[in-house]
Amino acid sequence: MVPGADPALMICDVSAEIAQLARICSVPHVKVVQHGNRSDPGHVATYRGALGLLAPCHAALAQPDWPDWMIAKTHFAGGLGIAPMPARDAARARLGIRADERIALVVSGGGGSGFAQAPIGVGARALSDWSWHSIGHVERDWHATEPGNLTHHGWVDDAPDRIASADLVIASTGNTTCHQVLAAGVPWIAVPEWRYFDEQHEKARALAEAGLAHVTPHLPSSAHAWRAAVEAAQAGHDAGRMRSLVDADAARAAASWIEGLIHRAWGAAAPFALVAE
């Protein structure tokens, strides 16, 4: 802890060790709950010792094996951390996309090594009447061959516009990406990447069980596999259901919940309020 600091409550992200340090220092803590197999003694002790648990997802995406005692102390905050997504027509106008142009967007994030170039090229050739675009880092393959309907943009500042304007998104299952795709209500092929504790695989499983995405263990590796995946993503698509799991007021609701925990822990001695009236 910072010398001289007198915190009312500490919010710990993914570090079970920092959460345990807060507990040792007699500082109440809120633990952010991520998906994944976190049944090890360290995580369980951290969750049990937390004053509350903050899940950056809707309750419909709760992991099935989270026990009742965890659910009871969890505040679900679907949409936490993202700005409102733009409207499709406005996004397309800014990007210069025609109303009748079909767009497949590959979102390759920076949490890992990114998606590989070759399977994206296979997908673009399989759906040659679509315009294919990628954003983020794409891992180059020496053997990759790419058709003319595929453009790699690299890192961009207009990712929300590109997601909102797409007819299909291919992306992994990190929290921010999940929230943006759900808020846009776009058909989604979800491809979980390797993360500690199988975080993205468990998140993908929850998305599939809720009927929000078509999940594949890796990018499709043939033209017919790509066509089947796209058909599956479109067939199960429910834009309204997707958007319902993202709360535009998630940040304020979470702050209000945290303020309530502070007053519960400190009573009249609570040193400050987080939410302005």
Commentary on this structure:
- The protein is of the alpha/beta class.
- The protein is elongated and about 65 Å long.
- The two termini are 30 Å apart.
- It has 11 helices and 12 strands.
- Helix content is 38%, strand content 15%.
- α1 (16-24) packs across α2 (41-49).
- It folds into 2 domains: 10-80 and 248-269, no CATH class; 88-244, Rossmann fold.
- A 6-stranded parallel β-sheet has the order 9-7-5-10-11-12, with helices on both faces.
Radius of gyration, whole Å: 21 Å
The dominant shape is: elongated
Q: What is the CA-CA span between the terminal residues?
A: 30 Å
The CATH topology of the largest domain comes to: Rossmann fold
CATH class (first level) name of the largest domain = Alpha Beta
Let me know the number of strands. Answer: 12
CATH superfamily of the largest domain: Glycogen Phosphorylase B
Features:
277 residues; Rossmann fold; 2 domains; four-stranded parallel β-sheet; disordered C terminus
Topology of helices and strands:
Layout: E1 10-12, H1 16-24, E2 29-32, H2 41-49, E3 52-55, H3 68-72, E4 74-76, H4 88-95, E5 103-108, E6 115-116, H5 117-126, E7 131-136, E8 138-139, E9 150-152, H6 159-165, E10 168-171, H7 175-184, E11 188-190, H8 199-209, E12 214-215, H9 223-235, H10 239-244, H11 250-266
Parallel strand pairs: 1-2, 2-3, 3-4, 5-7, 5-10, 6-8, 7-9, 10-11, 11-12
Helix pairs in contact: 1-2, 4-6, 5-9
